[in-house]
Structure formats: C-alpha cells, structure tokens
Design goal:
Length: 161
Amino acid sequence: MTQQKSFNPMDLWKDIYNQSESYWSSVLDEKMKEEYFSEWMGKVLEMNLQFKKILNETTEGYLRQVNLPTQNDLANIASLVVNVESKVDNLEELVEENSSNQVNQAELKREMTRMKNEIKGLNNKLDEILALLNEKSSVGNVNETAETVGTTETTERNENQ
C-alpha cells in the first residue's frame, strides 16, 4: 500500500507567498536603510503637503464664491462664542454679587433705621432729664434767691438800726 501524496494548490501558493515575502522583506529593509530612500520619502511627503495646501486654497476660494463659511470661519465663530460665554459667566457672577450686596444693603438700611429710632429715643430721654434738671435748678435758684433776699433784708435792717 503506497501512500500517494495529493496535490494541494493552497500549500503550493502558501510556500510561494512565504518565499517571496521573505525575499522582498529583506530587499525592502536594505533599500529603506539607504539615504536616497529617505530623500525620496521626503519628496513624496513634500508633494503631499503641497497638494493639500493647493486643495485647501481651492476649497476656500470655492466656498467664498458660493458664500459658504469655511472651516476657519467656523473656528472663529466658535472662539467668539466661547468668549461671549465667558463674558456672560462674568456678568452672572457680578449680578450675584450685587444681589447679595443689595440684600446686605437692605439689612444695613433696616439696622440704620433701628439705630436712628434708638437715638431719637435716647435724645428724648436726655431732653426729659435736662428738663427735670432745669426744673430742679430753677427751684433751687428760687430757694437760693429767697435765702439771699432774706439775708440781704436782714443785713439791711441791721445796718439801718
């Protein structure tokens, strides 16, 4: 019984692929290490950048002609919106500070009114005290005057005698 090996095209294709891949891999590795490959890649990159620049300029020119915003226009608008939002936030903070100050001012006004009323009450009490002192002093003056008059009369009588 002899064993016959059957022909498998997939195995043959796989062997050819592996051999060619290893050969081309080593060739390309060697070529990529050389100076001119780097120069060539630099030129390709430069050409791509020039193409991108021309494409961007052409696109922007077209968009201007058809009166549509460009990417730069949209970016500028977005930055303006961000600036407006920050200014609105600042204004909100100021309004909140002013409203808290107004609350404090209202409390301050109430306190001032209360203090004025207390001072008026103290002023009225002082006026009453002064009036009482004046009454006492006038009663005292009357008594002193009466005593002075009495002693003066007595002295005059004594002198006349």
